[in-house]
Amino acid sequence: MDRTTLVQFIRRQEKMTPGATGEFTNLMNEVLVAAKIVSLQVNNAGLGEDILGMSGRVNVQGEEVQKLDDYANSIFIKLVGESGNICAITSEENEKPVIIPPDRAGKYIFMVDPLDGSSNIDVNVNIGTIFAVYRKQSPGLEVTDDDLLQPGTQQVAAGYIIYGPSTLFVYTSGNGVHSFTLDPALGEFFLSTQNMKIPRHGSTYSVNEGNSQNWQEPQKNLVHYLKEWDEATERPYKLRYIGSLVADFHRTLLKGGIFMYPGDKKSPQGKLRYAFEAAPLAMIVENAGGKATDGKQRILDIRPTDIHQRVPLYIGSSDDLDRAHTLLG
Ligand code: AHG
Ligand code: MN
Ligand code: MN
Ligand code: MN
User: GO molecular function: any one (predicted)?
Assistant: First the structure.
């Protein structure tokens, strides 16, 4: 294990960026402290204060909010909001953006899915946090839609944390994808893998087949194709589906293959959110040599019209995505 800490690595990367001011490193330091606090709570869930179960609230997504959703949301908003580097935060759990008062604001925008995989919290299965960092685009102090509704190509950085057997911090700022493992005894994230690359092809597909009765024909044909026997194209693929996007994506990043959450007759735009889930993971997978589309167009090229916009997601190995697109038409 390399003993480079996450902050040392980010600082080194930022120093290689012309005109860097250290503000990004300062912001990411707050993100990783928030990750450590949430990780501690996740690992002690069920032991100390009652952090499991429902909060009794329904969020703007129409989902029943778990106590850990609220807890993680409050931690990331508080720490990142007080970094001095942020002028606005959008969150899956907040209907409206959190605008930072100008006297404490900075040049970045932070977008976050504070707790991904909420349905897995009480059953002790991997969950995570997904985040993206954008630059403020509009002149002056006011935060406008030009700042809040940016295409994924404008992301300065994207990352996720997985709270699992170990706590992993994976991020890219456009110069490769790098992963760090939390040493809980020291409370430090240490570099575990630099410049991660997704295999060009994998033999796993990941989708909730329980929704198949609502799929359109192309999605049905694609999954049928993946399940047919054919030695030359290494089929059938294996099915792996955890129900936590961060975990299903992380396995796909390491082993290759394809993850998909299609749109269907009931929800043509699917379930996953553009800003908090699809765009950050699309930046990561492209920096690792993979692809991410909505079935037709590149995820990163989409300019959202609402901060909670949903989008169908097909993401993973380049060869598997190319194959999928020939069947999706
Ligand atoms: P979140 O917990 O942030 O609301 O996200 C849940 C998402 C994602 O983690 C996962 O891929 C998907 O929901 C699973 O949805 P289904 O249960 O419909 O398969
Ligand atoms: Mn949710
Ligand atoms: Mn999520
Ligand atoms: Mn969530």
Answer: fructose 1,6-bisphosphate 1-phosphatase activity
CA–CA separation, 157 and 100 (whole Å) = 20
Q: How far apart are CA 133 and CA 112, in angstroms?
A: 9
pTM of the model: 0.97
CA 247 to chain centre: 10
Query: What pLDDT, in 10s, does the model give residues 93-104?
Result: 999 999 999 999
Judge contact between 128 and 162, C-beta under 8 A.
yes
Ligand 3 centre distance from Cα of residue 18 (Å): 34
Token pair 């989008």 in the structure block, residue: 311
Q: What is the pLDDT at residue 329?
A: 84
C-alpha of residue 24 to centroid of ligand 4, in Å: 24
Q: Whose CA is nearest to atom 11 of ligand 1?
A: 245
Distance 42 CA to ligand 2 centre (A): 16
159 vs 1, more confident: 159
Evaluate: CB of 162 within 6 angstroms of ligand 1: no
The closest-lying atom of ligand 1 relative to the alpha carbon of residue 115 is 3
Q: Is the ipTM of this complex over 0.90?
A: yes
Which residue bears the tokens 């087949």? 209
Per this entry, what is the length of the chain?
Answer: 329
Residue 249, Ramachandran bin (φ over 0: left; ψ between -120 and 50: alpha; else beta) = alpha
Q: Per-residue pLDDT averaged across 252-258, rounded? A: 98
Q: Hey, CA dihedral for 146, 147, 150, 153, is it positive or negative?
A: positive
Query: Which atom of ligand 1 sits closest to the CA of residue 119?
Result: 2
Structure tokens at 49: 């204060």
Ligand 1 pocket member 245 (CB < 6 A): yes
- Ligand closest to 114 (CA) is 4
Is beta strand 313-316 parallel, antiparallel or unpaired with respect to 64-66? Answer: unpaired
Residue matched to tokens 């796909």: 252
In 3D, which of 14, 247, 275 has the Cα closest to residue 132?
275
Q: What is the mean pLDDT of residues 27-37?
A: 97
pLDDT more than 90, % of the chain: 88
Q: Is 91 in the pocket of ligand 1 (CB under 6 A)?
A: no
> 119 C-alpha vs ligand 4 centroid, how far in Å?
9
